[in-house]
Structures are given as C-alpha cells and as structure tokens.
Design a protein that fits this description.
The structure is a single chain. This protein has 328 residues and is mainly alpha-helical. The protein has helices at residues 2-16, 21-25, 54-60, 71-84, 87-91, 94-103, 114-119, 122-142, 148-152, 155-168, 170-173, 178-194, 200-204, 207-213, 235-239, 257-269, 282-286, 314-326; strands spanning 294-298, 304-309. A hairpin with a 5-residue loop joins β1 (294-298) and β2. α8 packs across α14 (207-213). The longest helix has 21 residues, at 122-142.
C-alpha cells in the first residue's frame, strides 16, 4: 500500500506542477487552468503550478480593496471534503509527500504522544486566525485585506514558489525583507523537523488538513470502518504515525500503512509455519473470535479440539498441546 500511495503522490505532484519550463524560466504559469483549484496544498506561484491552491484562492477573496464571498472556492472545498476527506492529505498533497520523503532519512524518530495530540488543535487556531480573522481585520482597519496565512506562515509557498522565483529573477532579491526572512526560517524549521517527526506541518499547522478532517466520517471515498469486520484490536490506531484516536477521526489520512506493518512483521519474524491474513469478516466469524489473541488447536481431521482466548506463556501453550494430544 505504501509504495502504491507514494507512486500516486509522485504523479500528483507532477500533475499539479506540469509546467516544467517554468522552473527553467522563473515564470508563473498564467494559463486558464489557473482558475481551477487543485485539492491539495500546492502554491499558485510555484513556477510549475498549473492550478491554484485552495487556501491561496480562499485568501484572494479576502485580500485587496474589495471583499467578496468565496462561493466558488468554498463550494470546491466542501465538494473535495465530501468526496475524499483527508484522503487528499494522504494521497494528493505534494507538500505532504515532501515531508514523508524527508521522514525516510534514517535518524531517530519522535513518535506521537499526548503532547503531539494537543498540538493538533493548533492547526484549527491557525486556520481561523490567519485564514479568516486577520485578513478581515486588516480589511476593516484600513480597507485592504491581506492573505495572512500565505504571507506569514505557509512553508509550502516559500519552498515551491519563493525560492525558485528568487533564484531565477535577480530583480526580486532587492525586495526581500523581514517577512521573507521569517518565512525562510519557518520553512527550514519545517524541513528539519520533518526528518524526525512524521508530517509535522500536516499534523500541527495546515488549515487545509483541518478542514478536510471535518469530513472524514462523511466522505464518500474517505476512511470507512466496517463495524461487522472490525474486531476492535486498535492495531491500526497504535501503528498510525498520525495522531489518530480512532479510525476515521479528524487526524486519519487513510495512508493504509497499518496493513503494510502487519505484513512486514510476519516477514521479519521469519515464521516456519504458514501465516495467512484475512481482511474479511468471514474468517473470524466462522471461528467465533472474540478477542486477540485466540489460539486454536486443530487435529489431523481439521477439527478444533481446544480453544484459548488471551495470551499464554510457553508453559501454558505446552500444557494446552499436551491436553489436546491426550484428548482431554
């Protein structure tokens, strides 16, 4: 699943940024496709960008001297959310993909904990404050709104747009100031921490992820839990690198990594007996599995002779086998 998802992420990044000559010329694509918002976070001003960023587009309606209600962008954001939810974050976001590549660098990693769970609420504060309140406050104060999130925070814009444009346009360098210096440091910090912490921007700062997370349990192709098949082991939640408390909550990006970890565990242990995995409900229903682990002793005629629910020591397993052999 991870390899398939990485391929989709790579192809999505190319699709969003298909204007490859723009990276050589240092020019922003001005074609008609720029009127269309892509689902993921991808800066409008990136030289390769063929579409618009939904957060940037939303901010553009609240910037300048005329305040407009963002019917089109808000409608698209609702549509994207209802169709995919945070699957967009896990599969269709270039900046999320960049963070995942950085996390693959072999270093000690910081796992999720109670503190990181609290930090996930920060993205909602940033969304309300920098996407809504500050732009509207500037408009009310001096009649000119500003795209506060794009201007003061977004590290994706700095990495994907500012640096390539500045590198290829010497005239832009003379206009650099404190704001660029702040955003450059924020981008470097995001890149650095992404090596040690899984997708920190997505988890703690991204207002787009916060928005899509609200639709996770409603999305048509979002994260769905089949109650008839789920046995409540919570292995997927424990193994998830996001701050999920349950499947399909606001933090789940539908990465599918939990399945891969089960397969890797089986391969790493190098068991000398066949191991089968069942993703459907028929197996555990047929064997009446009511807890994990459940051990069954099956005789030569494929009849279940013994059953034990829960963990066992080596001595307990040996005693259970001896009873089965003796027919007790």
């Amino acid at each position: 699943m991870a390899k398939k998802r990485n391929i989709v992420q790579f192809l999505t990044t190319l699709l969003y940024n298909g204007n490859l000559p723009g990276f050589m010329q240092g020019r922003i694509w001005q074609g008609s496709s720029k009127q269309i918002c892509v689902p993921g976070l991808n800066c409008y001003s990136c030289p390769g960008a063929l579409g618009a960023c939904p957060i940037g587009s939303l901010q553009s309606f609240m910037s300048g001297t005329i305040l407009r209600f963002p019917f089109y962008v808000l409608g698209l954001l609702i549509l994207f959310g209802l169709i995919l939810g945070r699957r967009i974050c896990g599969w269709l976001c270039p900046f999320g993909f960049i963070q995942e590549l950085l996390y693959k660098i072999p270093t000690p990693k910081f796992s999720k904990n109670a503190f990181t769970l609290k930090l996930t609420y920060l993205k909602y504060i940033i969304g309300v404050l920098f996407v809504l309140i500050i732009p509207l406050a500037f408009f009310a104060w001096n009649g000119v709104g500003i795209p506060a999130f794009c201007k003061y925070i977004c590290p994706a814009g700095t990495l994907e747009a500012a640096i390539p444009l500045i590198a290829l346009n010497p005239s832009l360098r003379s206009g650099l100031g404190l704001i660029f210096g702040w955003k450059f440091l924020l981008m470097l910090f995001t890149i650095l921490i992404s090596i040690f912490v899984y997708r920190p921007f997505c988890r703690f700062l991204c207002p787009l992820g916060a928005w899509y997370g609200l639709y996770n349990k409603l999305a048509i192709f979002g994260i769905q839990v089949d109650k008839a098949k789920c046995i409540g082991c919570e292995a997927c939640v424990r193994n998830c690198k996001m701050d999920c408390q349950e499947v399909a909550d606001c933090e789940c990006i539908n990465c599918g990594d939990s399945k891969d970890k089960v397969r890797k565990f089986i391969a790493d242990k190098n068991f000398k007996f066949p191991v089968y995995t069942a993703e459907q409900a028929d197996v555990y229903k047929a064997y009446n599995v009511q807890g994990i682990p459940t051990t069954y002793i099956i005789d030569a005629n494929v009849n279940i002779t013994k059953k034990h629910v829960g963990g066992m020591t080596k001595a307990e397993l040996k005693a259970l086998l001896e009873k089965a052999v003796k027919g007790k």
